[in-house]
Amino acid sequence: MIRFENVTFFYQARRPVVENFSLEIPDGDRLCLSGPSGEGKTTVLRLLMGLERPRRGRITGTEGLRFSAVFQEDRLIPERTALENVALFSDDETARAALARLGLDDVLRSLPVELSGGQRRRVALARALAHPCDVLVLDEALTGLDEAASERCLAAIRRAAEGKTLVLVTHESAHAAALGARTVRL
Fold first, then answer.
1. How far apart (Å, rounded) are the C-alpha atoms in residues 158 and 29?
2. Taking the model in full, what pTM does it have?
């Protein structure tokens, strides 16, 4: 179980982004963090993955866990094809299958600059889904996708998240419901 115990975090401005935040995430849980923009949802994800450290309080239960994430930005390597970007953390066979599940088997050799915004978003998601992990972290992973692409992605996420902990941020309550995620408001 992952535990946030009275966690406070602030950037240089010293105004807390997260203040006295406590949360328990049982193994295999599906959790959606919701709330208005600027309320600290992405910061909580960064704290969860160890990309930031609490200023006060503590986070336990993350030791030895493998994380895979989709950030708000696609973070694709421009010089690498879609297949190469996804295979960064997996093998070619797993990468091809992840791309195919998201309807991208026709862009395997395309560079990010040659892809639409929705295609780049799905390549970033495919990379996260292909990476072996214990905790799948999705920060507005379906932003900008049409309904059909979103449905296809939700099905792929459900499949990939089986037996894993899933923590996501979305402003779409229907996406959280489709993934069976309990919602915590910040």
1. 12
2. 0.94
